[in-house]
Amino acid sequence: MSTSSFNNPVVKWIDERLPVFTMMQHSAVDYPTPKNLNYWWNFGSLAAFVLVIMLLTGIFLAMSYTPHVDHAFVSVERIMRDVNYGWLLRYLHMNGGSMFFIVVYIHMFRGMYYGSYKAPREILWIVGVFLILAMMATAFMGYVLPWGQMSFWGATVITNLFSAIPLVGQEIVTWLWGGFSVDNPTLNRFFSLHYLLPFVIVGLVVVHVWALHTVKSNNPTGVDIKGPEDTIPFHPYYTIKDFYGIGLFLIFYLAFVFYAPDFFGEPDNYIEANPMVTPAHIVPEWYFLPFYAILRAFTFDVLFIPAKLAGVIAMFASIILLAVLPWLDRSKARSARFRPMYKWFFWIFVLDCLVLGYIGAQAAEEPYVTIGQVATFYYFAHLLIIVPLVSKLENPRPLPESISAAVTKSDSE
Amino acid sequence: MAETATEIQGAPGTGESRRDFLLLTTTAVGAAGAALSLWPFVHSMNPAADVLALSSTEVDISPIEEGQSITVVWRGKPVFVRHRTAAEIETAGTDDAANLPDPQKDGERAEKPEWLVVLGICTHLGCIPLGQKSSEPRGEFGGWFCPCHGSHYDTSGRIRKGPAPRNLEVPPYAFTDDTTIKIG
Predict the structure, then answer these.
(1) Which of B43, B83, B124, B149 is catalytic?
(2) In CATH, A41-226+238-282 is 1.20.810.10
């Protein structure tokens, strides 16, 4: 590190005192990357790109937003009508939230298909689970800020989840609210936390990338990097590929921003919050729907646990359980390419998540309740029963000797 | 360096020395102090004095006809005041014997049988149940129906069907005279 390899005297001078350029060279240029990554590996850098857009638009939106129950709704309308390019900032931010979840959900499913959570990437994966939790908290609080009907009632329903905690539940909810209902103190603190949490996410991303660069990227074969013949430098090969992905992604994202900006939104959120009237049909944002379906699936008590608490526990467990996936899956093969049974169960699991998402948007009536209960059961059965069992019963197909061998042999995969 | 110092002062290898004792106690006191200093931050998020001060509401109930309900605001929450009909009172009474998820007698819930005063907040996840207007659905038991997750409440505001665990809460209230109630 002390012998700087930079020619520019200024860069050299700085690097000898604070090796930022060495670090960048090491982690963004020379970083040895498996040479067979497919396009599913674009979604990590895409997520980082969306995070930057969200931070940038969010900081500028905050300059025109007023976190007060009497002014919040109007200040958002002012952003839309009077603030120069306010509409653009807000639509980028609103749709950026949805894009963030699309990109990250694909990123997570990619990890599950190719076994990217397995040793030695457990901590990398667990940091990822923390990241999705932090994203969810941020998104939830951000949705409250425009102070529309869905903002208010979404906040009421979700904060009330904590009242299910035995003994101290109601005290915790009062504490979260800073009052006896969702009101001005609640809006104020949500704004504060909505501004804070993205920087926590940035910190977690740094740890996530640090862990990644320690254990190196997984790849579609799931086989370890054996030597330099298996890798190519990150720059220019993957920088250019990531930029290409960003280009495609921007077409998708901006199509919503400019042509269907309210596609992911709820019309009810353009009605100012009214604590005296609940909308006929409260639905969370689309990215929470599968978890909302799990919450509502518990219409019955489980042993001594009342239905409401059981639903809340199941909802949080559905995400936290992912953190132990590295230990539930004992298969020696990482990639589903070489796992004939797991491959199918993976896709059934994806389908199950989509079914849960659909059910989450429906009213609490038959046949949706029963379908939701079956889908919820399957969600947990997949993680707790099917994954451990398949990894025991299945005979993985022979793994290639190395990434290089797999790539040069044939392109049949 | 630190190891050398410890060895000179205390019995080597046992880890017992005045320095260890000081280190442990200082750490413990420091940690306890740091933990306690969190409390002002945590407590600052609890309801502030001005929020607590908005505690009671007076309601004139004389204009409410039999069979009608009104909604009043108390502590930022809706309170349902229903002037019950004779039929509603009778159903509420006979349902005392029904299979109730949260058993409570109607007599315990209404100070005067004609007047039912309950918090208009579903005990499931805090939505406002429908049924205040005669045009709204009142559920299978003629009281209120929560549209969010399908909880049915009876004419005494008791949970009868659906995910809500408890009856609609009865707020503290008193009749200051025949036509006025004070909530809170």
Answers:
(1) B149
(2) yes
